[in-house]
Specification:
Layout: H1 2-10, H2 13-18, H3 20-37, E1 44-48, H4 56-61, E2 65-70, H5 73-81, E3 89-93, E4 107-112, H6 122-134, E5 136-148, H7 149-159, H8 163-168, E6 188-189, H9 191-198, E7 203-210, H10 219-224, H11 227-240, E8 252-259
Parallel strand pairs: 1-2, 1-4, 2-3, 4-5, 5-6
Antiparallel strand pairs: 5-8, 7-8
Helix pairs in contact: 3-11
């Protein structure tokens, strides 16, 4: 896992999420998180792969009871630095593949908003998903984020003129699926592969949404929008983010599941 530590030690993930284009993913995810939290009295929330705490700290400061599990020590240090001391939050250094420190059927909501970006085998993806389901209460909600294949083909390969490089390095399959490896840092997936993972655990899908949709395609434009125009872009995005005909082309998706 050194490649993950090296990557997150060298970037400012908060800066990405605070940019206007990054806020779309955050605003969308938070909308769906709160849509379900408002239905539960005193919910217990787990975030697996909490990063620097953009979601965990925010939810804890809203008064929710949160457990945050994070692999990278550097991220944990940043997360803890954001706390003011009155939050109900437990921070644990741990791995999404091994949540043995947490009991079965404990949490009303489990967020897995980063680990699937860095798991490269079906075995590991199913293991992480299974652990998230195990620690969630029956009828509880599991939200899982993914990085999508088509947005990378369109933007990285063609828009940013990397076609020759990726072909020379055998990074694309015949059906135009990116061949991700740990050194590439991000695992890229398609909607049918997400559905196949879901079929391996005891869940039912509630929704699959595009958390940023077309935002990254026009990120420079988004970042230059005035406040009113940006608010209207977010309004438009939220109006269409559940449309199944565009989800596969989003940079990120959120799979919203209920434990049977």
């Amino acid at each position: 896992m050194d490649y993950i530590n090296d990557f997150y030690n060298s970037i400012n993930e908060d800066k990405r999420l605070l940019s206007q284009h990054g806020q779309v993913e955050y605003i969308t995810t938070q909308k769906y998180v709160h849509d379900f939290l408002c239905k539960v009295k005193h919910p217990k929330i787990l975030e697996v792969g909490a990063g620097t705490g953009r979601y965990s700290v925010s939810l804890a400061q809203e008064g929710y009871a949160v457990t945050a599990v994070e692999l990278v020590k550097h991220n944990i240090d940043i997360l803890k630095s954001k706390l003011i001391g009155n939050e109900s939050i437990e921070v644990i250094e741990g791995n999404a593949l091994e949540l043995s420190m947490l009991s079965d059927n404990t949490f009303d909501m489990t967020l897995v908003l980063g680990p699937m970006y860095h798991l490269y085998s079906n075995e590991d993806k199913i293991r992480a998903l299974s652990e998230a389901v195990r620690v969630t209460k029956q009828g509880g909600i599991i939200m899982v984020a993914y990085c999508m294949n088509e947005s990378t083909i369109i933007q990285h390969v063609f828009l940013h003129n990397n076609l020759k490089k990726v072909l020379e390095n055998d990074m694309i399959s015949e059906d135009w699926h990116c061949k991700s490896e740990p050194k590439e840092l991000f695992e890229l997936i398609r909607t049918e592969e997400i559905a196949a993972l879901d079929s391996c655990v005891d869940v039912e899908r509630i929704k699959l949404i595009a958390t940023d949709g077309a935002t990254h395609y026009i990120r420079e434009c988004i970042d230059q929008m005035d406040e009113y125009t940006f608010s209207k872009w977010v309004e438009y995005h939220l109006a269409i983010c559940e449309r199944q005909d565009i989800i596969g082309a989003s940079n990120h998706t959120l799979d919203i599941l209920k434990k049977k």
